[in-house]
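FAQ: What does a ligand-bound record look like?

Like this one, built around flavin-adenine dinucleotide:
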Amino acid sequence: MSPTDLVARLTALVGADRVSIDPARLKEAARDLTEIRGTPPDVIVRPGEVAHVQAVLRFANAGKIPVVPVVMNTNIGGLALPSRGGILLDMTAMNRILEVHPEDLYMVIEPGVLFGQVKEHLDRNFPQTRFAYSLSPPETSVLANTLMDGLLNLSLRYGTSSTWLNGVEAVLADGTIVRTGAAGWSTTQWCTSSPMPDLTGLFVNLHGTTGIVTKASVRLQQAKRLRRRYFMMGYDVRAACALVRDFVREDICDDIGILTWPVAKMLFGELRPTWREPGEPLVMTYVDVTSNRQAEMDLRESILAEVLETSRKSGARWEGPLDVRDLIKIEPAFRKLAEFPTRLDFMLDHPGGGLSWVGTYGPTSRWEEATELSCRIMVEHGFPPIAVARPMAQGHFGVLRLIETFNRDKPEEVEAVAKLNKALVEALLPMGFIPYKTPEWVFREHGSKIDPGFREMLRRVRTALDPNGIMNPGKWPV
Ligand SMILES: Cc1cc2nc3c(=O)[nH]c(=O)nc-3n(C[C@H](O)[C@H](O)[C@H](O)COP(=O)(O)OP(=O)(O)OC[C@H]3O[C@@H](n4cnc5c(N)ncnc54)[C@H](O)[C@@H]3O)c2cc1C
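The answer part, i.e. the structure of the complex:
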């Protein structure tokens, strides 16, 4: 079909103001923050309602035209970059918080709803509830995050973000609307996925290859009146990993994480630090403690001090715990690590604006060796050893993320990042650290190691839901 015909047909379905072939936008849509490149879409469509999504999918399915959904394109995996052109479905206009149920602790949102928007809405209208936040900028999608099983600041306590989903409404490739979770049966509540068979999983970690999600019911949590964030500066990665596991066992924190030394230097303005003074801390460990009662807060904080003291007695050197409010007085840049959602501008606002990583979920018991090995590989490739480790779901597994900033306009830097990421995945996958928000190139390199039965089942599911293979082709290739 010629571009003119394509635009004419789509315009007839959704209106001219929702269809764009602006060459600059098409070109920009073929790249994201990372080193990965896609193919420019032929057209961008911005649906405003579910009926628009249905109409576009029916049309695309009949003509076997690829459809790629996107909100803000910050997934750091090339997951919303078209690989075969087609229609880029920009979901930003479907941005309503449709319902909030403070008693039953859930909200119903559209895909274009952003973290900053949720925070503002809940703080203003439902202060008895709270949601959780990613470290992505406030203007990124909550729903896209849940579909990618993202990590939030309450994921230690309540699990990664897909576990917060009570269900979704999705449009399949042929235009059929499906609802999962309680809304698959009830028209009066969507507060649970139970006791329905868990078909929500058909849309999680699959990057839009099974359907376009148009609504989701997402859990809220009870708000806590008191919250403290403490930092501890340490000099030993092994001691930091052990300390975090000990904190998790005590069940006193909402969130805990380890950040290696270059993060602190970048926070204070260094672009890409590769040198650390021998006396400077090697890691920053942070913990969040919350409660509704001062007495409980005091108890949690005294346990925290006790665990830290035990670590010191076993030979580890720690500074702190330092209250982030005091750190902000000394160095205002710490504000970026104090409140959520936040904008980590030191990762984003630099020449060429490139940001990439290998992010994995794996066993916290192997963090030490995996972190040390990864940092060594990063240094060997000429990059600062930026590592972040955070336990998830009460410590059942953990995040290990190795981060690079680079100049996207310099081919040699793009190539160096691609090479480094490849080396990191090669080292981490055999240790049980599985790349999340999995980029296409990881499947190309390592897909053959996926269990054959799993691949076959996924192929059958994908073929059943999308027989013409139009949905975000190339992602999770089967
Ligand atoms: C500095 C920085 C820090 C970050 N920190 C975190 C973090 O702490 N935790 C974390 O989890 N992530 C993090 N991220 C990654 C990312 O920004 C978040 O996960 C964010 O929520 C993604 O939102 P988005 O609007 O950019 O989604 P997009 O990138 O637009 O979409 C993500 C995926 O969802 C698919 N998709 C979009 N809409 C739909 C739909 N309606 N139906 C089906 N599929 C759809 C897309 O095709 C794509 O595969 C970070 C990113 C940056 C830049």
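Follow-up question: can I read anything off the structure? Yes, for example: The first strand starts at residue 19 and ends at 20.
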